[in-house]
Design brief:
The protein is mainly alpha-helical and about 100 residues long. It has one domain. Helix content is about 70%, strand content about 0%.
């Protein structure tokens, strides 16, 4: 008795829908960049990271497109988070020295 493993591959990935959460994450990343420079609101980056991770999970489960949007949003979100943390640490050290 032989056991054959069949791998199914979608015929055309361009027919798969783009994950909406990935688009939302990318839009929030743009908003976070604008908010960082104009309003100093780096808090939005937390939501960008959350939305990016949810989008990646949904893309993997559903086989949708939009992975680049989600990864781009994660890069922006984590980048803003690191910059904000560094800025807060520099502020804390310089204000404590005064």
């Amino acid at each position: 008795m032989s056991t054959e493993i069949v791998h199914t591959v979608p015929a055309d990935t361009s027919l798969q829908p783009v994950n909406r959460q990935a688009i939302v994450a990318a839009a929030m990343a743009v908003l976070a960049i604008v908010g960082l420079f104009f309003a100093g609101m780096a808090v939005i980056a937390i939501f960008v990271v959350g939305a990016g991770h949810v989008a990646l999970n949904q893309i993997q489960q559903r086989g949708e497109r939009g992975r680049a949007f989600a990864i781009g949003a994660l890069v922006v979100g984590y980048g803003i988070g690191i910059l904000s943390l560094g800025s807060a640490l520099i502020f804390a050290v310089t204000s404590a020295a005064s």
